[in-house]
Design goal:
Order of helices and strands: HEEHEEEEHEHEEEEE
CATH superfamily: tt1808, chain A
CATH architecture: Alpha-Beta Complex
Structural class: alpha+beta
Number of helices: 4
Strand order of the largest sheet: 3-6-7-8-9-10
Largest sheet: 6 strands, mixed
CATH topology: tt1808, chain A
Helix content: 25-40%
Length: 187
Amino acid sequence: MTSAPDYGQGLDSERALKFAVQRVRGDRVQIIEGIIEAVSPTWDHERAVRVIRRQIDDRVDELGCVEGSGNLDLPGSSNWYVPDIAVVPEELARGGGALLPDQTLLVVEVTSESNAETDRVVQRRRYAEYRAPLYLLVDRIEGSVTLFSEPGGLGYTKVDGPHPFGTVLRLPAPFDLDLDTGGLTPL
């Protein structure tokens, strides 16, 4: 009688999971705490993303950056994020691979009914842990925006908000611009 093979022996599950998720055809997927989820935003979600993107676009260009929803790897964890918006220096965006949260200037997540708690709690904690300098949470369920900054090992140490939609929120350096949230609508 032969024993069953030990498939876990010597297997780097983090690398295997991230390798597999990058090869999914069709849908974009992310990994949140080891769970693979499809990223399939609705039209109203995309509208909220567009409201933010249009306001930061000129400043992003001035900074020599690009904004998009490219992959962010969180090495040493079973997380692979696809943020709604990430602003990164143009030279880093040319490599074609995933970037790290600390290589961003700003990360924006817009909540949906299916992911609100993940954006509010899990991703906020992980973005701080991996040193994303600015994390903007657009909470469509609560009808609010919150800017988190000054990341630390225990979370963000500075919080501006939550502010109701309609508030003008100041994005600090390097953006130095006022973000009008009046065009955002709650779910």
